[in-house]
Structure of DUF1963 domain-containing protein:
Amino acid sequence: MNQFPSQILALRHSAWMPVVEANAGLPTASKFGGIPWLQPGESWPTCQHCGQPMPLFLQLNLAELPEALRGKFGEGLLQLFYCTNTDAFCETECDTFFPFTEGKFVRLIVPESETPPVVPEQIAHFPEQRIIGWKEADDYPDSQEALEQGVEYAEREWEALIDADFPRSGDKLSGWPHWIQGIEYPNCRICQTPMRLVFQLDSNDHLPFMFGDMGCGHVTQCLEHKSEVTFAWACS
Ligand SMILES: [Zn+2]
Ligand SMILES: [Zn+2]
C-alpha cells in the first residue's frame, strides 16, 4: 500500500468501522436499531406517507466518535429513522432513495435528559446493536471521485493500482463513499453546496435490511449548515 504514487496517497482518508455488541445501551448511545433518544413527551417519529412509526436505523452520539472526528459533524445525536412498511410501498412511492424525501427522518438533536422514550406497540424495530468502538482503516476513492480531485487514471488502471476493495463497502463512518451509480452527493438546501459523507449504511451489514437490490446508503451533511442532514441510497 505504501507504493502508491504520492498523488494517490494524498487522497487517503480514514474510515472507521463500527465495533458492536448485541445489547441495549442508554437511549443516547451510538447504535444500529433499538431504542433512540427522543425529547421528553415527543412521540416516536412516524412516516409522512403511511403514518406508521419508523424504526431507528442509526443513532450516532457525536461526543463518542473517534477523537479525530469530534466536533466535525456538530454536537448531539445524529439519528436516522426509515420506513420499512412494505404494505404501503413507502420506498417506491416516496422515492426514499433520493435525499430529502418522505419515508425517512434524519436529524441532529442535542439530548437534554436520559428519559427513555415511549415505544409504540406496533413498531417492528431491529434488535439493538450498540456501537462500543471504532476500528480505523485507510480508505481511497473510486477513479471518478479521484478525477474530481484532480488525479486522473483510467478506471481499469485505477482499480489495478488501488485494490478493488476501495472505497470500502459495508457500514463505516467517514472515509470515501462506495457509490453504486456514480457520485451522488446531495446539495445542501440552504447553500446548494455538495454535502459530505458522515456515515455509509450498507445493505445487510449491521442491520438485517436491504436497500433495493443490495443498495448502499449514505448519511450526508452540509459542512456549513450542520443541521442539514439527509440519507439517500442507490443500487445497481
Ligand atoms: Zn411509510
Ligand atoms: Zn449548506
